[in-house]
Design a protein that fits this description.
This protein is α+β, with helices and mostly antiparallel strands. It has a single domain, classed as RNA polymerase II/Efflux pump adaptor protein, barrel-sandwich hybrid domain (OB fold (Dihydrolipoamide Acetyltransferase, E2P), Beta Barrel). Helices cover 25% and strands 33% of the residues. It has a seven-stranded antiparallel beta sheet with strand order 5-8-9-3-2-1-10. The longest helix is centred in the last third of the chain and has 11 residues. It is globular, with a radius of gyration of 13 Å.
C-alpha cells in the first residue's frame, strides 16, 4: 500500500495535500480505494460550497458499495475533479494524483496538522484494521 509522507489523513480515509498556495487537495487513500474496489461513479461536491469538518460532501460508488466522502476540515470547496465524471477509475489507478476529488480554500494549514493524522500514524491505524 502506498502512503505518501507529505499527506495528512482523516480517520474516514480521506487524504489531504497542502499545496504551496495554501489550497488543500483531497482524495481517498489507496487503502480506501482498494477496499471499495473498482469505482463506477464519483459525485464531486459543488464549487463554492462552505463545508464543516466531517460533513459528507461527495459520494463514490463501486461495484461493491457506495460510500460518502467527508470534508476533513472546515472550509470552502474551490474546485472539483470533473474528469472523474467520465473516468471514475482514476481514483483506483492514481488515488494520490489524477484521482483527487476536490480542493478547498479558507483553511488554516495548522487546522489540518492538528485535526488529521500523519502518513505514519495513518499506516499504523490501517495496519490495526487489517
Amino acid at each position: 500500500m502506498e502512503t505518501p509522507g507529505e499527506l495528512y489523513f482523516a480517520s474516514s480515509h480521506e487524504w489531504v495535500r497542502i499545496e504551496d498556495d495554501g489550497t488543500l487537495t483531497i482524495g481517498i487513500s489507496d487503502f480506501a480505494q482498494r477496499e471499495l474496489g473498482d469505482l463506477v461513479f464519483v459525485e464531486t461536491p459543488e464549487i463554492d460550497a462552505r463545508v464543516e469538518a466531517e460533513q459528507g460532501i461527495a459520494v463514490v460508488e463501486s461495484v461493491k458499495a457506495a460510500s460518502d466522502i467527508f470534508a476533513p476540515v472546515a472550509g470552502t470547496v474551490s474546485d472539483s475533479n470533473t474528469a472523474l465524471a467520465e473516468s471514475p477509475e482514476l481514483v483506483n489507478t492514481d488515488p494520490y494524483g489524477e484521482g483527487w476529488i476536490f480542493k478547498m480554500t479558507d483553511v488554516e494549514a495548522g487546522d489540518v496538522v492538528d485535526a488529521l493524522m500523519s502518513a505514519d500514524d495513518y499506516d499504523a491505524r490501517v495496519s490495526e484494521d487489517t
